[in-house]
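User: Could you go from structure to sequence for me? I need the amino acid at each position, not a summary. Structure tokens:
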């Protein structure tokens, strides 16, 4: 019998969507447990002691073990599927894009989305207000780089969809929530349509 997978999550989070979309694409069942991050439900002593000492979701529970970090959790779910390239160079290149996503894309695009749509402009701290233009420039640079990379290719790595595409899709397709103009990046929008056409695709709201 396949092991039980439980996703500890907040469904509006793109990081959590990565794990859900991966599991839908590879046909692995996930049980879902919802936490309201706006109420600090991932910061309780119980959560910190038993689920993730880092106080964040997503966390994938595999039996009685826990994997925090969206890209690591998605990797676990995708292991053995065509989303993980067999070729060592392509596999490393996939990881390159997943690390890049966490350093250059998510801290800018996702953070701005959270600040603008969840926290609200009037509730931002002085520091957050100062950081907004820096994050916007960095987010635009990330989207531009993606658009250039996708010129003349269908997927981020090699000739087939990989986990890199899924991890990059999660916050790219909702970048409009943070007022990024996705229509400026035609290669990115074409790529997003290809992901939405993959067998098993589920939208973020599913
Ligand atoms: N690098 C982590 C980031 C996780 C993260 O920032 N999670 C946010 C939601 S997207 C969270 O749990 N926020 C609640 C909190 O920090 O209290 C990942 O990729 O999973």
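Assistant: Here is the amino acid at each position, in order:
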């Amino acid at each position: 019998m396949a092991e039980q997978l439980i996703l500890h999550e907040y469904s509006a989070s793109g990081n959590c969507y990565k794990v859900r979309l991966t599991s839908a694409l590879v046909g692995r069942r996930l049980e879902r447990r919802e936490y309201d991050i706006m109420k600090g439900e991932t910061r309780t002593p119980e959560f910190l002691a038993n689920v993730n000492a880092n106080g964040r979701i997503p966390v994938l529970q595999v039996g009685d073990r826990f994997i925090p970090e969206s890209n690591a959790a998605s990797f676990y779910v995708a292991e053995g599927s065509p989303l993980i390239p067999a070729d060592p160079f392509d596999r490393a290149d996939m990881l390159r894009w997943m690390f890049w996503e966490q350093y250059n894309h998510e801290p800018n695009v996702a953070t701005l989305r959270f600040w603008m749509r969840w926290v609200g402009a009037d509730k931002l701290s002085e520091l957050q207000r100062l950081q907004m233009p820096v994050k916007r420039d960095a987010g635009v640079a990330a989207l531009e780089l993606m658009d250039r990379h996708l010129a003349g290719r269908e997927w981020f790595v090699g000739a087939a969809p990989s986990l890199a595409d899924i991890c990059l899709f999660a916050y790219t397709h909702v970048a409009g929530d943070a007022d990024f103009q996705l229509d400026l990046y035609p290669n990115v929008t074409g790529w997003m349509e290809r992901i939405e056409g993959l067998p098993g695709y589920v939208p973020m709201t599913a």
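One structural detail worth keeping in mind: The first strand starts at residue 5 and ends at 9.
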